[in-house]
Amino acid sequence: MYPLARFILFRLTAEQAHHLVLDQLAKRPTLAKLAAPAWEPSPRLSQEVLGLSFAHPVGLAAGLDKDAIAVDGLFQCGFSFLEVGTVTPLPQPGNEKPRLFRLKSDEALINRMGFNNQGATSLACRLRAIKTRRGPIGVNIGKNKITPNDQAISDYVKAFKAVVDGADYIAVNISSPNTPGLRDLQSVTFLLDLLAAIEPVRAVRNLPVFVKISPDLADESVIEIGQALANSPYAANLGLIATNTTIERVGLTSKEQTETGGLSGKPLADRSTAVVRLLAGAVARKLPIIGCGGIFTAADAYAKIRAGASLVQIYTSFIYRGPQVVREIAEGLDDLLKADGFTHIQEAIGADLRS
């Protein structure tokens, strides 16, 4: 069914299609079952990470459902967990349109959305109204565009406080290329100061916190951040997401490659896996890692798991392949585990670092 839906959706602009799909999933959550019938993941794929239970390792990355309007419909697509946002303390419109572009021949997207969202308070109300959760829901938080970097910590604390009651984990976004100066916050000093500031709020519900980093950091910086966080006082409740989108444009063929913004999809696969591997070596299994970037197949996801990721997130492949890609990746992972003689996914995490 999805090839026909994609044919229609790809006749709209990328952002028009985005909103249409979200609106329909919000109004008619069971629509997802037409493209992705219900299925039962293998128990080999289930695990607990930072106190949260995951039926399988495939989740939705932040950015698709910024305001948590279609949570039920997205869970019915088969995801084991969702990450909503990025959300900021105050509502903001984001950057001018057009700001989302398909690179069809590269199976990629470029976005310069700019944290468009309805604000943390609005999102928190929606999360509190959810009666049944089919899996963990993370909330990705960022700072408002108008907030200078020297006041950024205040914004993260405000956003954290607003959503703390409705979130199962918090993801701290310091790596989007679409908010001016945001990536300048990717320093050990800032991160430790930020974690110290949010700790009193985090401790109220003992929420896990994941730090999302850029693929464009130098290898030395990736290792430095990983080691610092793994050896910090906050490590017991901390994880990493690798990675956000990239500003690099290597090997692309689509004419849209000249658009500014963050690139996601297949071209990001190798670098994001390399960052997972660097972080896994740096943290020495002290912190769990969510691998994100260029995952279209079970083999893509498995590469990140063997590199050290406990979980994976997808976004761009969901746009290009449809809801069925979630099941395809999860069931394919189970086949790959069996082929390599693993009885459980946890045995495969970081396997390439041990070989």
UniProtKB/TrEMBL annotation:
UniProt: FMN binding residues: 62-66, 86, 140, 173, 212, 243, 265, 294, 315-316
Pfam family, one: DHO_dh
Known EC number: 1.3.5.2
InterPro entries referenced in this protein's UniProt entry, alphabetically: Aldolase_TIM (IPR013785), DHO_dehydrogenase (IPR050074), Dihydroorotate_DH_1_2 (IPR012135), Dihydroorotate_DH_2 (IPR005719), Dihydroorotate_DH_cat (IPR005720), Dihydroorotate_DH_CS (IPR001295)
Membrane topology category: Peripheral membrane protein
Start and end residues of each Dihydroorotate dehydrogenase catalytic domain: 45-337
Primary subcellular site in the record, as a coarse category: membrane
Record carries keyword Glycosyltransferase: no
GO MF term set: dihydroorotate dehydrogenase (NAD+) activity; dihydroorotate dehydrogenase (quinone) activity
Compartment(s): Cell membrane; Membrane
Residue positions binding substrate: 66, 111-115, 173, 178, 244-245
Source superkingdom: Bacteria
Name of the top EC class for this enzyme: oxidoreductase
Keyword annotations from UniProtKB, A to Z: Cell membrane, Flavoprotein, FMN, Membrane, Oxidoreductase, Pyrimidine biosynthesis
Catalytic residues, chain numbering: 176
Subunit record text: Monomer. Heterotetramer of 2 PyrK and 2 PyrD type B subunits.
Protein name: Dihydroorotate dehydrogenase (quinone)
Pathway(s) it belongs to: Pyrimidine metabolism; UMP biosynthesis via de novo pathway; orotate from (S)-dihydroorotate (NAD(+) route): step 1/1; Pyrimidine metabolism; UMP biosynthesis via de novo pathway; orotate from (S)-dihydroorotate (quinone route): step 1/1
Family according to the record: Belongs to the dihydroorotate dehydrogenase family. Type 2 subfamily.
Any one GO cellular component localisation term in the record: cytoplasm
One of the GO BP terms on file: 'de novo' pyrimidine nucleobase biosynthetic process
Species annotation: Alicyclobacillus sacchari
Catalysed transformations (reactions): (S)-dihydroorotate + NAD(+) = orotate + NADH + H(+); (S)-dihydroorotate + a quinone = orotate + a quinol
Cofactor note: Binds 1 FMN per subunit.
Cofactor: FMN
Keyword Chloroplast: no
